UniProtKB/TrEMBL annotation, chain A:
Pfam families referenced in this protein's UniProt entry, alphabetically: B9-C2 (PF07162)
Transmembrane regions listed in the UniProt entry: none
Residues spanning the signal sequence: none
Alphabetical list of InterPro entries matching this protein: C2_B9-type_dom
Family per record: Belongs to the B9D family.
An example molecular function term from Gene Ontology annotations: gamma-tubulin binding
The UniProt record lists the keyword Cytoplasm: yes
Name recorded for this polypeptide: B9 domain-containing protein 2
Localization (cell): Cytoplasm, Cytoskeleton, Cilium basal body
Predominant cellular place of this UniProt entry's protein: cytoplasm
Automatic annotation (TrEMBL), chain B:
Annotated Pfam families: B9-C2
UniProt GO BP: cilium assembly
Organism: Phascolarctos cinereus (Koala)
Gene: B9D1
Entry keyword Cytoplasm: yes
Identification of the protein by name: B9 domain-containing protein 1
Amino acid sequence: MAEVHVIGQIIGATGFSESSLFCKWGVHIGGAWKLLSGVREGQTQVDTPQLGSMAYWSHPIDLHFATKGLQGWPRLHLQVWSQDIFGRCQLSGYGFLHIPSSPGAHSLDCVTWRPLGGWREQLARAFVGGGPQLLHGDVVYCGADRYRLHTAAGGTVHLELALILRNFSRYGIEC
Amino acid sequence: MAAVNPTVFLVMVNGQVESGQFPEFNDLYCKYCFVYGQDWIPTSGLEEGISQITSKSQDRQRSLVWNFPIDITFKSTNPYGWPQIVISVYGPDVFGNDVVRGYGAVHVPFIPGRHKRTIPMFVPESTSKLQKLTSWFMGRRPEYTDPKLVAQGEGREVTRVRSQGFVTLLLNVVTKDMKKLGYDTNTLDMQTSSVIDLSEGILK
């Protein structure tokens, strides 16, 4: 079986209007793939930056996959949350990205979006906080049910991932 | 001579903890240590180090120069658990107590060559205002019992941090026998060659 190592960090986020941010992340893989070692999902610390507006998480990721087929190449899905002064958390953005398919070091930016809801929800979010969230998280990385949503842009999450592939050339795969 | 069919690969890392940027603080020293997985064994060099105490430079950069050497070689059978460098920076507060000014971590670069890495540094924060005040007076701020925690992904969801500086590392990496073991780490990154900064174009 061919193997894929994904090693790197979720560096941080820019462009969000809130200041104390954290990120929940997870990996989704197809049926032919197996996660041999490493954690499948996690959550970063809450960072309140003192210099500039970028929140830094430096959250390490180290994953080892084995695969029997190319379909279902791993994708990373992210949820950015913000914490207010009362310690309440509200959703700031959903996003996903495919793990790159070529070996080497990649510096990646993941754009995010959040559901808007109706005018009542928008008004409530502006004054009280909170706001609509997705009931099923898989909408983030599956395209099937997206058309029913109305969304707004969030900020950008920055990642640095390195890929190490093993035995792909033995099966004639060109990455 | 090297064996024809290797079972381990080697990663040699050398370089230095070059400098730090901490606008709010002065007279800082740094510690470095390596965190790595079960399959990794350091074969030579020092895993940990403590630098001198340095003051800010007089120029406009106001950087804290350590110029502290790192030199280590690892061997492993599996890239999982690839070594990370954990940097922690300490310095005196207004009462002269040694307190932590930042933790940071980065993976050792994967691709052979010379790499410059600037890593963000953060400190854990007290959760309550009262605790924040008493810890300031007592000079006992929240810190991690083990700095190696910053290299782990689990158990971070409860911590609140404040990022307040940067440390620059210079690292040279040489690998041996990775290709022979079937690992492919090198490629042309199409992204870097073709990217036009979109946001800059709109703003100008």
